[in-house]
Design a protein that fits this description.
Number of helices: 2
Distance between the termini: 28 Å
Structural class: alpha+beta
CATH architecture: 3-Layer(aba) Sandwich
CATH superfamily: Adenylosuccinate Synthetase, subunit A, domain 1
CATH topology: Adenylosuccinate Synthetase, Chain A, domain 1
Order of helices and strands: HEEEEH
CATH class: Alpha Beta
């Protein structure tokens, strides 16, 4: 688990991305699409808000029941990610 002090941009995403490469499953357990995270994998840049960051590494990823899910925002994010390959 990665836990922050709720101070905003603490660099949690970099740690989660590093762990996601080694994890069996990545779960986003709370939050909404207002807080995003940017991942750089090779030369590709991914900006996610609802999808767990493990998805860009091919790690099975789960959106938990504590996530405030906007279905339209999720649809846009999935389509954008698909467009990136």
């Amino acid at each position: 688990a990665v836990i922050g002090a709720q101070w905003g941009d603490e660099g949690k995403g970099k740690i989660v991305d590093w762990l996601a490469e080694r994890a069996d499953v990545v779960v986003r357990f709370q939050g909404g699409h207002n807080a995003g995270h940017t991942l750089v994998v090779g030369e590709s840049v991914y900006k996610l808000s609802l999808l767990p960051s493990g998805i860009v590494r091919g790690t099975p990823s789960v959106i938990g029941n504590g996530v405030v899910l906007d279905p339209w925002a999720l649809k846009v994010e999935v389509e954008k990610l698909r467009g990136q390959g």
